[in-house]
Amino acid sequence: MQNKDYYAILMAGGVGSRFWPVSTQDFPKQFHDMLGTGDTLIQKTFKRLTNLIPKENIFILTNERYNDLVFQQLPEVSKRQVVLEPAMRNTAPCILYAALKIQKENENAVMIVAPSDHWIEDESAFTKNVSDAFEFCKQNNALMTLGIQPTFPNTGYGYIEYDNNETTAIKKVNQFREKPDYETAKNFIEQGNFLWNAGIFMWSVRSVIEAFQNNQPELYQLFESGYDSYNTPSEDAFIKENYAKAENISVDYAIMEQSTNVHVLPATFDWNDLGTWGSLYDKLDKDNDGNAVVNARTLTEDAGGNMIRTKNNKVVVVDGIEDYIIVDEDEVLLIFPKTKEQDIKKVLQNVKDKFGEHYG
Amino acid sequence: MQNKDYYAILMAGGVGSRFWPVSTQDFPKQFHDMLGTGDTLIQKTFKRLTNLIPKENIFILTNERYNDLVFQQLPEVSKRQVVLEPAMRNTAPCILYAALKIQKENENAVMIVAPSDHWIEDESAFTKNVSDAFEFCKQNNALMTLGIQPTFPNTGYGYIEYDNNETTAIKKVNQFREKPDYETAKNFIEQGNFLWNAGIFMWSVRSVIEAFQNNQPELYQLFESGYDSYNTPSEDAFIKENYAKAENISVDYAIMEQSTNVHVLPATFDWNDLGTWGSLYDKLDKDNDGNAVVNARTLTEDAGGNMIRTKNNKVVVVDGIEDYIIVDEDEVLLIFPKTKEQDIKKVLQNVKDKFGEHYG
User: Fold this and answer.
1) Which residue in A234, A257, A231, A227 sits closest to A91, CA to CA?
2) pLDDT value of residue A275
3) Average per-residue pLDDT in chain B?
4) Please, is B137 exposed, middle or buried when counting C-beta atoms within 10 Å of its C-beta (0-12, 13-18, 19+)?
5) Other CB atoms within 10 A of residue A84 CB
6) Taking CB atoms and an 8 Å cutoff, what residues of chain A touch B328?
7) What are the backbone dihedrals phi and psi of residue A247, each rounded to the nearest 5 degrees, phi first?
8) Which residues of B touch A347 (CB under 8 A)?
């Protein structure tokens, strides 16, 4: 049950360097079939959104260098739907810019902003949650987010604290909390009214633009001044000239943390941000020895708990290795302990320093 | 100082399956640059022999399926020099056959039979040893072998026991001894007059043919009956019809162990049969952490004692792995403990059973 007032912005400009050597500057994570399902993450995300949102209303926010990848992987997308940042900025400028473009096209639009590289298993629960949030945004001047029910005291995510007294499904947000230390995170979980911030936002274009106008007047002025050009041939010139002037600020900080009309719907679907090889391992089915295998055929002995991936269904023989990340790419072979996965960014830096930038 | 009476037969029909996944049925060890020197083992062996032997006198004994590889890797070799076995037989039949062909071409010929997949570092010592042996074979009716000074009680080689009383460099052989158990091997080393049998033989064509005539009359009859056809257009037809009738017997057993005129020259050069990944590791230079690296660039941490090889100078990141064989080929990645290298044949069989014969 698509609705012509429903819109989406897919954030597809990041790199995901903890997934090196698969995810690289030239070919980031969201354009890979990380789970071996046959779809890349952005294809999967796009399809999931079309349950609710007409495909011509789904915009892709990305960088110039990924333009070709977007059109290759989403051939149903037209040039109009791909919004390119001419300069690297945090999320606020591009979201405001896209919201203004959408508003000019449809002033009744409600929209979702969503990462293109996360994994959501239960698509119908996702669709139901987004649909409920959209309806709320249509009827209220609200900035909404989908919060993830935390399963353990993760110190790598931001948290959303909601008002415990409300009995409705959609809760008023008390405050956003930065990545906590372990004790604080444990305390959050015990309190029960904390959710993980997955970077999924929903609002009407009217509400989000008003929030920018109130909280980020300078940024608002900058992008509002180009309104006449949006969706016309002169848009490119305006953006090329003005985009780099925008403050480098996240949408969380720019409006969510400043506003009093922020609400959260605790998600009823499973969610995995596929942030590291370990979280991908957790998500995947395992063989009898507990190895997660993507695009490979394995012969293992005394080898369990490994994340094994090759490019072309290579035969991988592993003996006596436990809890490793084993990733074989055209130009790089990584054999690295899962427990040290947070160091992969450092390893990547070392490889680039030693062997050249193009390895990243 | 080449001599037109000097000939060689390079044995190039084997597979070396303990070097899987580099060495395969379709592309065996001798056709690989195992040490990353720029030359394959057969190229290296061929060059080594040309210090003494005219290149047109070096014959390659191999199978039909390696015909193309031989001509690719040794473009200076003519069709006349490639002797193909139409059926899989042990060494005696093909050596007798080749000796008869050479005799017909040059009845004064002395020849060396040598594996094409061993490693000899000191080429001038090798040349000197072979030259001395050749001169001995010219002047005496003798079957000669080069024996390797043993460095430890290896149970994987056969041994040659020589007469301790002789003071000449070239010794009379008492007997050949099969692969011994460890205690026996230790005892051999203590006695001091035992050498490793490296499968390197030298003799005049006259002496070797006489030895076959005396000790293997049936085999001799079979190949002698084709003498008129050798080195003529009718040779092919004769060999195709008769080769498969030959007994499946090794040259060691057929003549060396039966004859009384067997001599050995203790080699003065370093020798390595490159029989396993471990022996290749021993031979290679190591990086600061004790890793032997061929065709790869490495970034290692807490990783030493590894044998690391890729196809195209891949970047290999290894963390926390000690004493492993890490070999990356187009269709196979092997991560296997060096201590279990003798099991690689079994692993190969398992891979073929599970994923198909073509992986071997």
Assistant:
1) A257
2) 85
3) 94
4) buried
5) 19
6) 328, 333
7) -65, 145
8) 299, 317, 319
Decide if A341 touches B, using CB distance below 8 A: no
Phi, psi of A141, rounded to the nearest 5 degrees:
-80, 90
No. of helices (H) and no. of strands (E), chain B? 11, 15
* CA–CA distance, A204 with A181 (Å, rounded to integer): 34
**A-contacting residues of B 87-126, CB under 8 Å?**
none
Is the torsion defined by CA of B281, B283, B287, B290 positive or negative? positive
Q: Could you read off the pLDDT of B73-117 as tens digits, one per residue?
A: 999 999 999 999 888 888 999 999 999 999 999 999 999 999 999
Q: Which residues of B fall within a CB distance of 8 Å from A348?
A: none
CA distance B191 to chain A (A): 40
Q: Is A337 on the interface with B (CB under 8 A)?
A: yes
Helix ranges (DSSP H) in chain B: 41-49, 67-73, 91-105, 123-139, 182-191, 205-215, 217-224, 235-242, 251, 277-283, 344-355
Separation of alpha carbons A253 and A338, rounded Å = 33
pTM of the model: 0.85
Contact A297 B350 (CB under 8 A): no
The answer to whether the Cβ–Cβ distance between B315 and A351 falls below 8 Å is yes
Q: Is residue A264 a contact partner of residue A145, using CB atoms and an 8 Å limit?
A: yes
pLDDT in tens, B113-147: 999 999 998 999 999 999 999 999 999 999 999 99
Closest CA to A97 of A23, A30, A9: A9
Option in A310, A315, A318 nearest B355 (CB): A315
Is A189 near chain B, with CB under 8 Å?
A: no
Please answer yes or no on whether A340 and B328 come within 8 Å at the CB atom: no
**Partner-chain residue, chosen from A315, A320, A354, that has the shortest CB–CB distance to B337:** A320
CA angle A81, A8, A174 (to 5 degrees): 145
Q: Which of B136, B197, B196 is nearest to B166 (CA)?
A: B136
Residues of B in contact with A18 (CB under 8 A): none
Is any Cβ of chain A less than 8 angstroms from the Cβ of B327? no
Closest-approach residue (CA) in chain A for B298 = A351
CB contact under 8 A, A318 and B335: yes
**What are the helix and strand counts (H, E) for chain A?**
11, 15
Nearest-CA distance B282 → chain A (Å): 21
- Alpha-carbon gap, residue A20 to A332, rounded angstroms: 9
- Alpha-carbon separation of residue A191 from A122, A173, A264, A302 (angstroms): 27, 15, 17, 42
Count of A-B CB contacts under 8 Å: 82
User: Could you tell me if B287 and B302 are in contact, meaning their C-beta atoms sit under 8 angstroms apart?
Assistant: no
Q: What is the DSSP letter of B24?
A: B
Closest residue of chain A to B360, computed from CA coordinates: A315
| pLDDT surpasses 80 at A1 | no
The answer to whether B141 and B207 have CB atoms below 8 angstroms apart is yes
| Chain A residues in contact with B353 (beta carbon < 8 A) | none
**SS3 assignment, position B177:** strand
**Among candidates B310, B315, B347 on the partner chain, residue whose Cβ is nearest the Cβ of A317:** B347
Rounded CA-CA distance A217/B192 in Å is: 94
CA A183 to each of CA A24, B86, B156: distance values in angstroms, whole numbers, following the listed order: 34, 76, 60
Q: What is the ipTM of this complex?
A: 0.85
DSSP H helices, B59-204, are: 67-73, 91-105, 123-139, 182-191
Distance in angstroms (rounded) separating the CA atoms of residues A79 and A56? 10
What's the rounded Cα separation, in Å, for the pair B198 and B122?
16
Out of B319, B328, B337, name the one closest to residue A328 (CB): B328
| DSSP three-state, residue A351 | helix
CB A85 within 8 Å of CB A243: yes
Rounded distance between C-alpha atoms, residue A188 and residue A153, angstroms: 8
